[in-house]
Amino acid sequence: MTRRVGACSWSLQPESPADLASKIQAVGVSAVQLALDPLRTGDWPIDETVASLSTAGVEIRSGMMAMRGEDYSTLETIKRTGGVRLDEHWEANLSAAGQNAVIAGELGISLVTFHAGFIPHEPGDPLRRVMIERLRAVVECFTGEGVRVGFETGQETASTLISALDEFDRSEVGVNFDPANMILYGMGDPVEALRLLAPRVVQIHIKDALPSSEPGTWGSEVPVGDGAVDWPAFFGVIDSAGLDCDLMIEREAGDARVKDMARACSLVESLPGESESRA
């Protein structure tokens, strides 16, 4: 199996498409998960973005959409505001999804991921029904353009996410697995969660974290290799499950992101299995 390793564009805090292309090359990869919202709003011209990445030999392997109104200040605020939960931003988020879907379709991007939000576990919970219906509408925006969707892990347990995916019962909907998020949100062991979710995983984020010592508060993101993710065991599950999906390096903290992400790339390539960081 060949692992395609890339970088998450937003992690590199690029100032322009050319800056993004340069930083991706510095990380040592030739693939990217691209934040679509700057293209949607016009902050980044689509033609310029595509040209800069193409010239640098960087392939857009997937896209990412952020939901309006998300507040990551505390675990409680993100529980109230994450994903499609907020009523006041629902229409705007649905509209943005439709526009992002068109962009993804036009660029030939086959997968877009986003946070669904904290999905209540109980099937009879009225909020769960609302969220499932909203997520269904977002999914239909993307599948209508021939684009698959991945819900990112972390904001609910693996079992809750599985039950939500069972309700969708659509092959176009899967999981963007982020092991660090399981730790940051206190939602279970990432290795066991990956084992449970493996049949649904369509992409993996390479990110690490340490758990909080105080229940109900954030854990802390750290460079890959310095956290609580058991990477040899994690990749053991990838191999045993036969997961043939891209690995996108993400870093959302720290002031040395290119360096940290390059280190993560080296760690991935040092683990058993065949890795491909360059085209």
- Kindly report the CATH topology: TIM Barrel
The unreliable regions are none
Quickly count the helices. 11
Q: How far apart are the first and last residues' alpha carbons, in Å?
A: 15 Å
How are strands sequenced across the largest beta sheet? 1-2-3-4-5-6-7-10
Q: How are helices and strands ordered from N to C?
A: EHEHHEHHEHEHEHHEEEHEHE
The CATH class assignment is: Alpha Beta
Oligomer: single chain
Computed over alpha carbons, the radius of gyration is 18 Å
Strand % is 15-25%
Overall CATH architecture: Alpha-Beta Barrel
Q: Would you identify the CATH H-level superfamily?
A: Divalent-metal-dependent TIM barrel enzymes
Overall average residue pLDDT: 92
Structural class: alpha/beta
Task: Give me the count of strands.
Answer: 11
Describe the overall structure:
With 279 residues, the chain is α/β, with parallel strands linked by helices. It is built from 11 helices and 11 strands. The chain has one domain (2-276): Divalent-metal-dependent TIM barrel enzymes (TIM Barrel).
Topology overview:
Layout: E1 2-8, H1 17-27, E2 31-35, H2 37-41, H3 46-55, E3 59-64, H4 75-81, H5 90-107, E4 111-114, H6 126-143, E5 148-152, H7 158-168, E6 173-177, H8 179-184, H9 190-197, E7 201-206, E8 208-210, E9 220-222, H10 231-240, E10 246-249, H11 257-270, E11 274-276
Helix pairs in contact: 1-3, 1-11, 5-6, 7-9, 9-10
Summarize the structure.
The protein is about 40% helix and about 20% strand.
List descriptors.
279 residues; alpha/beta; TIM Barrel; two-stranded antiparallel sheet; 11 helices
